[in-house]
Amino acid sequence: MSEDNTGQISAAQLDESHLLHACGTTQRRDHANFYLLRLHPRTKRRLRIGRYAAIVFRHPIADHAELPDFYRPGAAGPRPADVNGYMVVHCRVGTLTDGERKTIAARTGQDAMMSAEVDQTLRNALGITWVRGSGRAIELYVYPMRPKPLLTRFFENLLGVRYLFFRVRRSLVSDIEKDLARIPEDCFPIMGLPQGASLVVERAVKRPLDKNGKIRGFKLVNYTVRAFAASEEVLARRRVREECEPARYFPSERYLYRYDFFDPAAEPGVFEESGDVPPIFADAVFRSFGVSANPGNAPLGSADPVAGRRRLVDVLVREFQDFGVALVIAILPFVQIFLPAEGGVRFDAWTLAWLSLLPALVIVMLCWRVRNQVR
After folding, report:
1. 74, 81, 182, 244: which is deepest, by most CB within 10 A?
2. What is the pLDDT of residues 79-108, one digit of tens each?
3. What is the rounded distance in angstroms from the CA atom of residue 265 to the CA atom of residue 214?
4. Cβ atoms of 102 and 112 closer than 8 Å
5. Which of 119, 145, 141, 115 is nearest to 48 (CA)?
């Protein structure tokens, strides 16, 4: 079976053996600086899942070829072509204890081996309303994902990172082809990221399909871009564009979080205000990252989630420029204690021991400062 020409995930590619019933997490002891999915240990082995996994959610918006126009009552238009309703996020994986397995089975109404717990942030990134994801089980497809490189995990644990999930939205014309992305201003201190610094954006992409045309797993790809704040002026201009051209500038929160999409008995058009993850305004080059090297994947759509973090190399270089040089200069006077009054340098064992501690002290202080930037 050939892959979908668009590269988008479709129902035919999903394997029912990967379907689980999930609800909110009750504790997060295995999170390791990232968002968490918790499974029965046997389920984890059956699906061949290691430290990380990819979650696929078929959002109810996939059932609506036409969407009502919020700004023009009674009018409707086709759903944007790049919004197919299949959301993908990657996550850390933990296991459920014996006692928790019984509890989650009661919460989902399913066998414990068919149940899972998913963090609130992941549910938001998938476009799941809080009421649905917290109170009732949701159906998710869980797939193995190749882990991050060991060196990356080591430095993330050493220096500290804060991941945020973002909802992809198209850039305004004034920002395209400038190798930048815009995110809300309050996201910068949370990630420990200054404006104009490098933001590493991650997404999970499909590995080649199996012989039956089914998804067999995902891999992580990333893209580095300079991040700037989306000012109130930028956001106001964006709202105007959403009202004028909703098909191009998709107002994702108004559609993904509609209660009647999840529950037909709900009042039509009512949506969960401020329930979405922050937006990231990106141009076509950004939205296409990871596609050329991984055929069979589509560019990011107008409602797809991505994860972002600061680039640790840039942080270390910046901290050394701002703080490390000053610290070295401040420590140099202490070297004078090793200089005898008559001149010459006393290179005995104690001298070498104290001098060897200086670079270690600088490194420890830099790491401490970098970790404390993350809120």
Report:
1. 182
2. 888 888 999 999 999 999 888 888 888 888
3. 34
4. yes
5. 145
